[in-house]
Structures are given as C-alpha cells and as structure tokens.
Amino acid sequence: MADEPVCIMSTGQAVPDSVFTLADFIQLQESAKNFAIGKLNKNKKEDAARIADIENNFEWVSKCAKNSAIDKRHGVVPDGGKRLEDFYHKHDYCPPYTLRAKLWRQYCPQLAMSAVREALAGWGGDKNKITHVVSHSTTGWDVPGLSHHVMYNLELPTSARAVPVNFVGCQGGTSVMFVAATIAKQDPDAVILALAAEIQSPLGRMYNDNISLEKSIYMPNVLFGDAAGCAVIGRPSTRGKKCTFPAFEYLKMGAHYIPDTRHVLTIAVSEEMGLYYENSIKKELPVKLNSTLAEMFRKWQRKVLGDVKPNDCAYAVHPGGKKLLQNFEGLIGDHGVQNPQNELKNSYKNLREYGNLASAAIIFILGDVCRETQKDSIYFMAMGPGVCLEYGGMRRYKDGMKRADLAGAPSAGAAQGEGGGMVPILVAIIAALVGFIVMGFTLQDIINAL
C-alpha cells in the first residue's frame, strides 16, 4: 500500500440555505448609507463633507458589485430574521465584534459538518479509517476547533488527530490539502479530511459614525460569501465500492510570496469604534498578481507537472475576483490553451453563484474539475494574504498505478535537464581513475568498480 498514490478521492460542498442576491446587497448598502446619513446634520460643514463621502462610497461599492460577475451569494441569517439586512438593521449596521465571533462559533461547525458528510458519502469508505482532520478558517475560531468538532460529531476513533491550519486566508484550501497530502505520503494508513469553512456574511463594514471610509475596506463586502468545502485524501484502495469520483494523485505543490505586499491584502481585528473585523483589499492587488503570474506561471507548472503542455492541463483556479480570472484566462491563452474561458468555467461559475468563498473555494472548484475534465493533468492555484500564491499539480489515477515518484514520472530536476541519474556513475568513474593512478589499479580493477 505504501507505493499506492495519494489522491483526492471525493469532495463535499455546503452553503447556507439563505440566498443573498445582487439586488439584496445593493439594498443593504443603501439602507446602511441612509442610516449613517440620518445621524448627521447636512447644515454642518464637517457633517456635509462626510455625507458627500458616504454618498460617493455607496456609489463606488454599488458599481463594484454590478461589475463583479457575482449574481448571488449564500449567507447565514442570524437572530431569526428573514434577510441578512434584518440582522444588520437590528444592530444599527454595526454589530459588535463579540457577536460576530459568536455567530462563527454557532454556524461554522454546522456548515463544516454538511460538507464533511457529503464528502464521506462520495468516498464511500469506512469513517473509522479516518486518521486525521486538517481544518482551516480565517473568519473565526474556538478551542477545541473545527477539527475537533468534526471528530466528535463523526464519533471517530480516539486515535484520530486534529490538525488545525488557520488564518492564512483564501489559500487556506490549498494549505489544508498540502498538509493532508504530506501526511498521507508519509503514512500509508492515513485517510484524511481536508476541511475549509468560512462564515463571512456577518463581517460586513458599513458607513457608521467615524468609521473609516477608505474604499479598500469595502471590497470584502462586495466579494465574500459563506461556505464549507471538504476533501477526502488518501489511497484509492480505501474507497467504497460505490465511489464514482475520479481520483487524482497529488504531485508536487509549491508556494510563492510576492515581495512588498503585506499591506495589500489584510485581515485583522481593529480597535476603531470598538473591536471590529477589518478586511482590506488594496487596488495594487491585481497589478501585483498579474505581473507575478506572467513571470512565473510556466516555471510553476513545469515544477509540479514536468513537461506537460499548457493545453494538456485542466485548471482549477481560486476566483479571487473577475479581473484575476480574466487575466489568468488571457495568460493561459497566450501559452497555447485552446478556449481558455471554458477551462476556467468552474471558477467563473463559482464566482457567479457563490461569490468569493475564501478558503473553501478551491475545494469546490477542484472537485468540479476532477469530476468533469477529460484531461489527465490538473494545475490548481489559490492566492491570499501575504500576498501568497499556492499551486500544485495532479494526475488522473488509474487502477494499479504506482506513486509518481516510484513509477518513473519526471521529477522537477529531470524536467529541467539536471541529469541527477548520472551522478553515481560519474563518482564511480572518478574514484576508479584515482585508484588507477595513485594505487596502481589494473584495467580489470576499473571494470569491476563500474
């Protein structure tokens, strides 16, 4: 079993039942704007200036939303309301941080369990074979955490290990898969749940009082939705007989931090007007990402997939936003990928139907790509705060297939012509020649040494 590939064997997706349309979002923003303006006196110079800024911000946020390619999102509706706006209105469009944290603890484990159960059903194996639960969230926390919640609710063996990997933002989905695949490659008996879950809908920033009107802090309002994604990772022999998910082997994975970008994408707890979630996306982000991808894409792809041509790959790319997907579409098109928009159809679909799901998004998209593609190779990628990009390669599993590194698949070194296999031969030749000169070896001695 140790020579069997480590694969993604199923995925599960979960979103709240409540739907938050584009029209709902604009209505919420308008209500928040009117509430904030209603507390000001337009006849006072200072208030009049702030009213103008609020109006300007509302118009900007509305324009961004209409151009976002997001039709709807899903979000929890706390406090027994019928709409997300009911929650914000009840708390004067500025719910306290402590309440937002409580809502994560209430809703995130529930959503996570829905994704886990769907992933386990698709895998079809014995849940008691689960050895690890690797979990991620950036939008909240508790102790014991998400991994423990899953272990308790599934009644896993007491030997199961919780591995929390938190607060790395949108690339958290690739992070949990990297940790899970690394564990599974070291432990032949490992079967791992890689889980990413986010509750983002209660974290919106509005226009109240003296809260900053810096536009970058309003982009998360436009983009993010609630979701949980789970992947079952291990060796295909653990699957149940009814499993129909087409397993793909995890090959190499990599990461890249873009220099001088720590300020570009940030998430923190602010003390402004009391404790507050502050999530900021600066306008430099697309520029930094685009230039880095243009320079590095093919290097990364060769690193994780060897000499596979860009057109022979399927693509699972985190939908950070419409511009990012459009840029990546153009990039792979320039490298010879035919119909690049179709290659990113699942990324566009995810953005359109759910918004940016942060760490859960890449698990949603990768699961869809695995199920739908006819190609045997997949390149996947996500990005988040840092600014960091994480990427990896996969190949389709076929019955009886050995692990890539045991079956003669090209390594990154071989793909780059490093000739690692020649080193032992050269060492033997040099040693034999030294012996011939210094110690008087015969020709036969040299032949025997080789």
Description:
The structure is a single chain. This protein is of the alpha+beta class and 450 residues long. It has 3 domains: 7-247, Peroxisomal Thiolase, Chain A, domain 1; 276-415, 3-Layer(aba) Sandwich (Peroxisomal Thiolase, Chain A, domain 1); 424-449, no CATH class. It is built from 15 helices and 13 strands. It has helices spanning 22-38, 45-66, 84-90, 97-123, 146-154, 172-186, 219-223, 285-305, 322-334, 340-343, 345-354, 361-372, 412-415, 423-438, 443-449, and strands spanning 7-14, 19-21, 72-74, 132-136, 161-164, 192-198, 227-234, 248-257, 265-270, 276-281, 313-317, 377-384, 388-396. The strands form 3 sheets. The chain has a 9-stranded mixed β-sheet, sandwiched between helices. The protein has a two-stranded antiparallel sheet with strand order 2-3. The longest helix has 27 residues, at 97-123. It is globular, with a radius of gyration of 26 Å. The two termini are 34 Å apart. The model is unreliable at 408-439 and 443-450 (pLDDT under 50).
